[in-house]
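Cross-check.
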Amino acid sequence: MSRLRIYEDTHPQAPLSSHTSPADIARELSQVGVRFEQWEASQPIEPGASQEQVIAAYRSDIDRLMEQEGYQAVDVISLKPDNPDRAAFRQKFLNEHTHSEDEVRFFVAGAGQFTLHIEGKVYEVLCERGDLIGVPDGTRHWFDMSESPYFVAIRLFTNKEGWVAQFTGEDIAEQFPRMSPHESAATANG
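Predicted model, tokenized:
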């Protein structure tokens, strides 16, 4: 189940609020300029589908976003718990960073946790199958895929070269909860 927890950035032990309704999540995030949507595939996607087949299943929503926001490229990434480089991939984005372009991810399968640091608050967003998150460029955030990652995601870019992490040097990400392995495993089986 998708989830949003909102914290004061100085109090990681107790969320101010928690939301699981997609409409509530979208409303809360839109107030800080973050896009949250849910998409449905236009055709069935079989396990092991090619990048082209995955993109084709969501083509109308992809085209809409590309037209609205000027994105120029789309691709599909996936990661499974048996990947030998999973720990290195996880570590790569666990610290607070920004990008010079939007970070847009649609979860075709599995889950990932985006945590956003905006105006004195921390927004922890557990995204699962069917969820799209659009984090605006320059937004401080970190991403966790758990110790046992499982996800297939569509990414949209204006310029892939612009999507390079610029780390803030702050240790805030270490103070807040990480994505638990059971959240990743639950979505892999659900």
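The helical segments are 22-30, 51-57, 59-69, 86-92, 172-175, 181-189. The longest helix spans residues 59-69. Passed to J.P. for a second look.
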